[in-house]
Amino acid sequence: AQKITQTQPGMFVQEKEAVTLDCTYDTSDPSYGLFWYKQPSSGEMIFLIYQGSYDQQNATEGRYSLNFQKARKSANLVISASQLGDSAMYFCAMILNKFYFGSGTKLNVKP
Amino acid sequence: GAVVSQHPSWVICKSGTSVKIECRSLDFQATTMFWYRQFPKQSLMLMATSNEGSKATYEQGVEKDKFLINHASLTLSTLTVTSAHPEDSSFYICSAWIPGTGKTKNIQYFGAGTRLSVL
User: Fold this and answer.
1) Is residue B68 packed enough to be buried (19+ CB in 10 Å), middle (13-18) or exposed (0-12)?
2) Using one digit for the tens of pLDDT, what is the confidence trace for A34-73?
3) Of A37, A43, A47, the CB nearest to B91
């Protein structure tokens, strides 16, 4: 069964605008962690942001914020003020007994 | 953040040869490392979980004798693709996990990946 779902295979955003990348998850375990990673064309996976299931506040890291809605089981990534360098694949992931990755969203930032 | 070094970054080999990929945690001790495989334009597929001092746990469908994993120390895990064939050509990524609590914990740090091309 799919545990992490990213429904947007690709997205376009204008430079300097904000963009939201969707992620929903499925688990009955009360303890889990949610991650977002960025994978540029070079292939390396870059850690962006982490949200624990018990964290009361939404995680923020610079221009990245995680919109954590526990009841809806969603963990959307919001990138504010998009930059050309943000163009990449973005993966949502969840840690339970092991890591589960979504299928990814390819973000293209237009000048 | 923590640094994971993966080497080599790109390897081309002939069919039938074996290839070893190294994954090192440079500034922390990693009791658990993971090995992933990624096909073009697809997500990461977990191959195995590597625990220091014990046998690796392989995911269903991954051949243990084909993909040998050794985690001999707290900072090094190796993946050996034995008798590589063209269908083994892929992007292989390792990661190290720091479990626990706190802002810097519970994060999986990735190596830069290894592109394997088998001729």
Assistant:
1) middle
2) 999 999 998 999 999 999 999 889 999 999 999 999 999 9
3) A43
